[in-house]
Amino acid sequence: MNKFLFRAAIGLLMAFFGAITYFTNDVQNPVTGERQRVQLSPRQEIVLGLQARDQMGSKYGGLYPSQSIQQYVDRVGERVVNGSAAKQAGYPFEFHLLRDPETVNAFALPGGQVFITAGLLRRLNSEAQLAAVLGHESGHVVGRHAAEHLAKQQFGRSLVTAVGVATSDDRGGGQQAALIAQAVNQVVGLRYGRSDELESDRLGFRFMTEAGYDPRGIVEVMQILGAARKGEAPPEFLSSHPNPENRVQKLQALIAQNYPNGVPANLVSGRDEFAKNVSGG
What we know:
By secondary structure, the protein is mainly α. 59% of the residues lie in helices and 7% in strands.
């Protein structure tokens, strides 16, 4: 067998075993109940998110300098997670407010790292809206969207090996370090698809309402972003979070379905609380 045929045979074998690995890694999500093809374990997702956290933050100017506003974002995020089914996923969520005042964006890394920019925060005007943003991003984590995308890209085999080494010991040297760096770059640049965004809308709605927040906050967030879109440059949130024309309508229908007699008065909007904690920061 010549070298070309030998290499082709090896390539076919690798493709075959890669496909077998992908299609046989079928697990059930404990929160959504969905069957998913992922190759990372939850622990490996956590490690990968921590590896990428600083790089993601540095893209947006680092952490916001006000500790009091960061603590407020923490409190709202923790209420959303600890008061809802998101807690069942077992991820150690961390919420980060980033310094960038111009970029209007929020995003999540696998394993529980959630970010919101100052540029987006300053457009909000209620705690329910903040809870909606953090709940939506937590939905990406709980939905394991990044892990699904990495598996689909057939990047998972080397990624799992590299992250597995990182979670167990320090062996593996430069090759594993290079693979980790490649994995970090993959997740930092990841863009979710429309189905992921719609699922995160539903999960964000679920998490924020289970935590006691007024679900109209998530509709208001989409309306705020839609209005911002009419400016000179659309918010980055809308480029990295595909926005179907009927997205607001879907959320309004979800509210009507869950609250046919109207939204209960005891669900928190938190406009005064938000103003007290964020204004002047």
